[in-house]
């Protein structure tokens, strides 16, 4: 670090103790700032959370964590913030099994095995299967520039990044402008067509699907033992270790602005806390609508919010069960398993298949011979409005939640009768729950979907008309998720350092290249 303009330490207030806020806090402390996090809940984590029900830990987040592979750029960042050690990581050998028009297809991480499986199912699609595997490989090797935000890069660095991405531009444009549906129509096999439309829940484009699977298939999308709790506990410990302070159950009501410059925050209890900078690491719509009282706009967000069809938000309902671990293991199926069911309603959506995930790969989620079985049901903006309206009449809301859980339970038992006596509902979450708990816009667990008709959103964290506020978090870069929250938290500190004419201390990632 050099060129210190002002010797007195500057203070940063961080709104929100999710992954992004904790990331900013840790990087901020390590770079000589005084930071304090204000979190509305009595615990940290935000959407990356878990909770206890009937003696079990329900994990409300991590299905795959990009950056678990040693040597990757994101792995360095996770370790910078103390999120996990390599020994903590469980690497799956598959991304789950999907029953596709009657044919079970397992998404093996070993791409040779996957290719062989798909060719056996549909020899007439051999050429296209090989092409798809090649696309996945291309995305495995795509190194996105994450060490520094684009807006802070020198022209020389930008050119270097541009050149390094050149070989991928073709596949990127091809896959980002193609919907999974359109791509799937190229295949003769109805099973493979179905598969392509179901790999990743939601309305993302082919790029989102292949990039997500590419990450997992290269061993870069594992899960930490103990799930979401592990990384949150570790990051909180790291933050406190480097001198940071979290104020729990302290909701921020407003960012205090004087003459176009942020001066601190006002808490819900009326307390004013002064600071030199404010990092808004909470949901970005909460920042605009609540903390800044709709006085400013972030054009990119506003445009996307208006064009809901092109930029749908992504939320879900979660129904969690406990189940006899031995009986579940005897089914001999992969941890994630999707199968068609008699259609039922969840919010305003019709659900035609169920995706279950058993957590018995990690002893942490096994209690007295029982383990957790979770079902994630994708929900849209319209579904959020449905639950939001119902929530105004609590008994009706609770009744509908129970009804949803019973519909799910019935279908799991129909599929796996041996689980009948041990499958117990232990928790139900709707998009409204996410909204109530974290102020998430439309209960979104990920930001706007990157659809084939939409465009990528890369936000520089600034709000026109206000100085010294930096916005971070999952909304700042599509497709969102934990790595984006982590990165944008770090970038917020880099942006402040740049304003302060100070340098960022980099850790050095290793270059890597995969072959099938
Ligand atoms: C069911 C589910 C499954 C998921 N699975 C994955 C996965 O497998 N892999 C993956 O990468 N991602 C996954 N995600 C997404 C991931 O959890 C989020 O992208 C990420 O946690 C977002 O972090 P964040 O810090 O940007 O925001 P948040 O987690 O929303 O953190 C913001 C924090 O700000 C607090 N806050 C809000 N308003 C205020 C206020 N006014 N004052 C004070 N505090 C406030 C909130 O309480 C919260 O703690 C999943 C999410 C869900 C819900």
Q: What features would you describe in this structure?
A:
It is a single chain. This protein is α+β, with helices and mostly antiparallel strands. It folds into 3 domains: 11-82 and 226-309 and 454-499, FAD/NAD(P)-binding domain (3-Layer(bba) Sandwich); 92-218, no CATH class; 315-443. The protein contains 16 helices and 21 strands. Strands 7, 8, 15, 16, 17, 18, 19 and 20 form an 8-stranded mixed beta sheet that branches. A 5-stranded parallel beta sheet has the order 10-2-1-14-21, covered by helices on one side. Strands 5-9-6 form a 3-stranded antiparallel beta sheet. α3 (111-121) packs antiparallel against α4 (126-140), α4 packs across α8 and α5 packs across α8 (206-217). The longest helix has 22 residues, at 155-176. The protein starts with 10 loop residues before the first strand and ends in a 17-residue tail after the last helix. Bound molecules: flavin-adenine dinucleotide (FAD). The site of flavin-adenine dinucleotide (FAD) has 41 residues, from α1, β15, α15 and α16.
């Amino acid at each position: 670090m050099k060129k210190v303009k002002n010797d007195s330490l500057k203070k940063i207030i961080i709104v929100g103790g999710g992954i992004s806020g904790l990331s900013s806090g840790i990087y901020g402390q390590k770079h000589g700032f005084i930071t304090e996090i204000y979190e509305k809940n009595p615990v940290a984590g935000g959407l990356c959370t878990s909770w206890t029900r009937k003696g079990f830990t329900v994990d409300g987040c991590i299905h795959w964590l990009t950056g678990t592979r040693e040597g990757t750029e994101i792995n360095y960042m996770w370790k910078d913030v103390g999120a996990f050690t390599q020994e903590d990581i469980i690497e799956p050998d598959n991304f789950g099994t999907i029953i596709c028009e009657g044919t079970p297809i397992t998404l093996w991480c070993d791409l040779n095995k996957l290719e062989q499986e798909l060719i056996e199912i549909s020899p007439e699609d051999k050429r296209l299967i090989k092409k798809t595997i090649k696309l996945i490989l291309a995305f495995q090797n795509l190194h996105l520039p994450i060490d520094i935000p684009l807006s802070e890069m020198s022209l020389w660095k930008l050119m270097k990044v541009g050149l390094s991405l050149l070989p991928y531009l073709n596949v990127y444009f091809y896959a980002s402008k193609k919907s999974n549906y359109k791509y799937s129509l190229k295949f003769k096999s109805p099973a493979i067509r179905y598969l392509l439309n179901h790999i990743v829940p939601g309305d993302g484009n082919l790029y989102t699907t292949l990039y997500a699977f590419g990450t997992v298939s290269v061993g870069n999308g594992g899960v930490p033992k103990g799930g979401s709790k592990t990384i949150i506990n570790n990051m909180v410990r790291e933050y406190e270790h480097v001198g940071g302070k979290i104020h729990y159950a302290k909701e921020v009501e407003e960012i205090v602005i004087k003459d176009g410059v942020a001066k601190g925050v006002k808490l819900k209890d009326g307390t004013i806390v002064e600071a030199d900078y404010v990092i808004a690491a909470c949901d970005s719509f909460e920042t605009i609508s609540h903390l800044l009282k709709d006085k400013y706009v972030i054009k990119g967000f506003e445009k996307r919010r208006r064009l809901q069809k092109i930029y749908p938000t992504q939320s879900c309902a979660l129904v969690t069960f406990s189940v006899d671990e031995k009986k579940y293991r005897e089914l001999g199926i992969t941890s994630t398993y999707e199968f068609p069911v008699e259609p039922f309603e969840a919010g305003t959506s019709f659900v035609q298949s169920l995706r279950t995930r058993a957590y018995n790969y990690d002893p942490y989620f096994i209690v007295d011979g029982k383990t957790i079985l979770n079902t994630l049901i994708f929900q849209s903006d319209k579904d959020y409005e449905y639950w939001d309206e119902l929530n105004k009449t609590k008994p009706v809301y609770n009744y509908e939640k129970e009804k949803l859980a019973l519909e799910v339970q019935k279908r799991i038992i129909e599929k796996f009768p041996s689980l009948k006596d041990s499958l117990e509902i232990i928790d139900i979450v709707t998009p409204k729950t996410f909204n109530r708990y974290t102020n998430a816009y439309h209960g979104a667990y990920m930001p706007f979907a990157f659809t084939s008709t939409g465009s990528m959103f890369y936000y520089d964290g600034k709000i026109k008309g206000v100085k010294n506020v930096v916005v971070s978090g999952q909304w700042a870069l599509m497709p969102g998720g934990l790595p984006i929250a982590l990165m944008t938290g770090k970038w917020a500190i880099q942006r402040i350092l740049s304003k302060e004419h100070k340098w960022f201390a980099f850790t050095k990632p290793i270059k890597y290249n995969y072959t099938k």
